[in-house]
Amino acid sequence: MIFSMDLRNPQIPERFLAGLKEQLGPFEYYEFPDGASKADVFQLVTEKERVFFVKVAGIKDQNNNIDNERKACHWLLRKMPVPKVIHFQKHKKWAAICTPQLLGESLANALDQLPPETAVKIYAQTLKQLHDLPIDDCPLRFSLGDRIALARKWVEKGELYNSEFEPENQRYTPDALFEKLLQLVPHEQHLVFTHGDYCMDNIFVNNGELSGLIDLGRAGIADMYQDIALAIRSIRHELGMEYEALFCQEYGLDNLDQDKVDFYILLDEFF
Ligand SMILES: Nc1ncnc2c1ncn2[C@@H]1O[C@H](COP(=O)(O)OP(=O)(O)OP(=O)(O)O)[C@@H](O)[C@H]1O
Ligand SMILES: [Mg+2]
Fold first, then answer.
1. How far is the CA of 232 from the centre of ligand 2 (A)?
2. Cys-Cys with 218: which of 51, 122, 196, 237 at CB 3.0–4.6 Å?
């Protein structure tokens, strides 16, 4: 395992708690039921009933790069709606970040009430806005070479299991899937500021409008299809393929490069 904190008993490190208490006063907190990631997420409620989130990950956990998340939140502040970082600490073994709770709920959860067309429009227009940001002064990069190198590292360490791949890839061993990935590497890149994990869980909406972006640990300059591919995958899973065309139209994409979509979805199997 890359991350050696006690996963059965996730805790906010004492030093981080002390810093938070100084800043926020007394609060209660509990572990937030989370997805598959190795980060530990907690929800905090202060005496004045202000709500915050704390995310803690191992310092070497490049899948949950808390330092990158902090830098991305900082870079995006006033450019896009992102939570302001209230507190951040980095130590030898762990890094932790605290952000205020965004209003509303994730786009994935909001699908119960939002018309699908509205959800797709918000999803596509937000991505277009993000990708249109000028990147000259952006210090965050997540090159394709770095991503492939990370994927290789996890394959070599034996940390991937084909039972966790998408159903169509489960017949491959991680080694074989990695070989397949290498054969499909695109020749051209269109570099923009990318979210890095642009699935509907990480986009928050409130009253039918965007309220913010979270989970920016893998954000930085990369190919636009890093995000487009994961958005297309999210749309297929949550809504169905018939909404892909609307997404492309709202993003302003005349021709969806299906090979790149396939490649970046495949690449995400390793993350
Ligand atoms: N600032 C915030 N406002 C509202 N909800 C938040 C905030 N930060 C985290 N959350 C909640 O905690 C969940 C996990 O946070 P996040 O996505 O950052 O971590 P993660 O470990 O990468 O999780 P996953 O692997 O499930 O994407 C989010 O899906 C969201 O429900
Ligand atoms: Mg997330």
1. 17
2. 196
Q: Which structure tokens are listed for 106?
A: 């994730």
- Beta bridge mates, 220: 194
Domains (range + CATH), the chain: 14-100 (3.30.200.20), 105-268 (3.90.1200.10)
Q: How far apart are CA 187 and CA 197, in angstroms?
A: 22
Question: Which of the residues are catalytic?
Answer: 197
What is the pTM for the complete model shown?
Answer: 0.94
Testing ligand 1's pocket by substitution, the residue of 53, 107, 164, 206 carrying the most ligand atoms inside 8 A of its CB is 53
| Ligand 1 nearest atom to the CA of residue 83, by list position | 1
Atom of ligand 1 nearest to the CA of 197: 27
**180-239: pLDDT as tens digits:** 999 999 999 999 999 999 999 999 999 999 999 999 999 999 999 999 999 999 999 999
Q: In 3D, which of 210, 234, 208, 232 has the Cα closest to residue 82?
A: 210
One DSSP character per residue, 94-156 reads EEEEEEEPPSSEEHHHHTTTS-HHHHHHHHHHHHHHHHTS--TT---B--HHHHHHHHHHHHH
Nearest CA to ligand 1 atom 5: 101
